[in-house]
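Predict the holo structure. Ligand: phosphoenolpyruvate.
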Amino acid sequence: MIIVLKAGISRKQETSVIQEIRRRGYRPHVMRGVARTVIGAIGDELTHQSLETLVMVFPQIVESVTPVQKRYKLVSREAHPADSTVTVRQQVIGGKKFHVMAGPCSVETEKQLLKTAEAVKAAGATVLRGGAFKPRTSPYEFQGLGQRGLKLLAKARKATGLAIITELLSEHHAEMVAEYTDIIQIGARNSQNFQLLIAAAKTGKPILLKRGLSVKIEEWLLAGEYVLAHENPSLMFCERGIRTFETYTRNTLDLSAIPIIKKESHCPVVIDPSQGSGRADLVKAMCKGAVAMGADALLIEVHPDPAEAWSDGTQQVSLEVFAQLMEELQPLIRAVGRE
Ligand code: PEP
Ligand code: MN
């Protein structure tokens, strides 16, 4: 921590702050400038009382208290300068190959899921998405098929060889969901549900952590820190739009999160243009932007008949549009040096 004292502080006042820093278990290093004094306090905040409140304890003396270290550690580039990768059924996410995870918002029927799985595989997707436990805003909307949905996902994996990703909504389901899925999705609404993150991390399955509706990038990185801190190294960050004043889209997809997360963290970055816009007609453009900006993968909602979808119909693209999209992405993927 860096503690900056106000101008014109006496030695006696300075000493009172130094004594308090020591009392709280930190080692103070005093730097006296011409106009003011700065104190560097060395110690571990995990085991000691925070120094942030010094501004309250000494309102006449202390100007500011600023942390020197970033609050996240294991997810940071400093901790791991090279890009980290997540391996799922022999597929390496975060490496040279660009990945597309695609499938319906919700698992509805065997026919719907298998048809989608075959089509997205044929178009080049490597992971099948599908919600079995759905975090619906209203309790009167379709809540997902639950375990029956997980069984259908496993069946689709068997039929196609695609890896699967599905959302974990509750700690109570962690073991059950992990039994079926290859990747656990933590949804936007649970982005900072720390107990759920810990339970998900403990399953050992790769985790895709969505950004919450009003979660700042630092908070999102700190949420990811929970996964790594609980000994699960396989973490991906997924931007899916944040809530703004804009009404033309369901959410505002924050593409600037891609270079920011890439700079701050070593973990792969995934973009979800479907929740990110709420509009099927915008999905192609969002995907192209994401590839150009350095995302490692996309998570796209695809449905054989979006108008008949049981959830998120307006943002799901048809099998045909998805196939076209995959074609159109190819030159961009190559242009950014990926496969
Ligand atoms: C979804 O992927 O269908 C979903 C509910 O996502 P989010 O948590 O981003 O809203
Ligand atoms: Mn959805």
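The longest helix spans residues 319-335. The chain has a mean pLDDT of 97.
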